[in-house]
Write a structure and sequence with these properties.
By secondary structure, the protein is of the alpha/beta class. Helix 2 runs parallel beside helix 7 and helix 6 packs parallel to helix 7. It is globular, with a radius of gyration of 16 Å. The chain contains 7 helices and 8 strands. It has one domain: TIM Barrel.
């Protein structure tokens, strides 16, 4: 049984987590994790610009000092910014105060660099624990995962595999997981033009998650 088959169950279990955006017909939401990367991110930005595509970049806080100008470029080109934690730790087994620090420190450094705070949070590795979505919302962030995994991060996959993973699964409202800041990102860059061209030919548009303008839900934070 594949992930898409299980997706409705995941959405029911994790009802506060956004996996896809079905209210936007013929739209795909491209997302990129782990940047900014001074080598790969600018090249991905050029490909997106060539196709008139906008995306959402989930930012590692500890990467911002290495490429602040690239982060500013992402923002100025109209892409949405998300919070991916500060140090890419697996937060599901961390204490509440450490999770909050990872999120708030990343918010702080992004706002200091580009003048805006993210509205979305994606935990590293997509690993959740009970209460994390509510904690995120209380910090002003909607927790976002994905409905289509490009698998661009695996050692065994090729650029052609990445293309196939996405094109065989993308549909209206899909949130697609890519990476622009890890050692496999060259593979993502190679696959991206083919993916965008194919989806555009099929009538899809590429939107940033900022079109959702989510309103955080108040409540008790994780204990």
């Amino acid at each position: 049984m594949n992930y898409l088959t299980l997706l409705p169950l995941y959405e029911k279990i994790f009802s506060r987590v956004l996996f896809r955006v079905p209210d936007f017909p013929k739209a795909v939401f491209l997302t990129f994790d782990d940047g900014p990367n001074s080598t790969t991110t600018p090249k991905i930005l050029r490909v997106l610009a060539d196709f008139g595509a906008h995306a959402t970049f989930f930012i590692r806080g500890d990467r911002v000092p290495t490429a602040p100008g690239i982060l500013l470029q992402v923002h100025r080109q109209g892409h949405a910014l998300g919070n991916h934690g500060f140090s890419h730790k697996r937060l599901w087994n961390k204490k509440r105060r450490e999770i909050i620090w990872e999120i708030e420190e990343t918010n702080r450094i992004i706002e200091k660099t580009v003048g805006v705070q993210p509205r979305f949070f994606r935990p590293p590795y997509g690993k959740l624990r009970p209460g994390m979505a509510k904690l995120s919302e209380n910090l002003g962030l909607k927790l976002i995962l994905w409905s289509v995994d490009s698998r661009d991060y695996t050692d065994s996959s090729t650029a052609q595999d990445v293309v196939r993973h996405v094109l065989n699964r993308a549909t209206s409202g899909s949130v697609v997981l890519f990476h622009d800041g890890n050692r496999h990102s060259a593979k993502t860059l190679e696959a991206l033009p083919t993916i965008l061209q194919n989806l555009r030919t099929r009538g899809f548009r590429f939107l940033p998650l900022s079109v959702l303008t989510p309103v955080p839900v108040s409540g008790d934070v994780l204990t």
